[in-house]
């Protein structure tokens, strides 16, 4: 797919078609990082809004963690590694759920605790 040159480029439409243009995003970030962030936020917000309610809160939490890692003033490579680590942890958890859902639920129940009032 050629790099879109016009301002009418609609990344939301392309998400639905599965035709995101990587070079467009690289150029956008390099040339106008503020516009990149605006479009990235628009896409993420739209995806979250379209997500079933039962997945939305967890996804919003994950996005919050990713955004916090991206704001880290250290090197971009370290930020990328941290975000990749989060992705693999999430995939590992999904794999555990898929492989043994009852065990996963029981393990989660065992990790809960009672709150004790201090006097």
SSE topology sketch:
Blueprint: H1 11-17, H2 22-31, H3 33-50, H4 53-70, H5 76-99, H6 101-110
Helix pairs in contact: 2-3, 4-5, 5-6
Give an account of the 3D structure.
This protein is mostly helical and 119 residues long. It has two domains: 1-50, no CATH class; 53-109, no CATH class. The protein is 73% helix and 0% strand. It has six helices and no strands. It has helices spanning 11-17, 22-31, 33-50, 53-70, 76-99, 101-110. Helix 2 (22-31) packs across helix 3, helix 4 (53-70) runs antiparallel to helix 5 and helix 5 packs across helix 6 (101-110). The protein starts with 10 loop residues before the first helix and ends in a 9-residue tail after the last helix. Mean pLDDT is 79; it is low at 1-6.
List keywords for this structure.
single chain, 119 residues, disordered N terminus, 73% helix, 6 helices, mainly alpha
Please indicate the count of domains.
Answer: 2
How many helical stretches?
6
The tally of beta strands, per DSSP, is 0
Main sheet properties: none
Mean pLDDT: 79
The CA-CA distance between the termini, in Å, is 67 Å
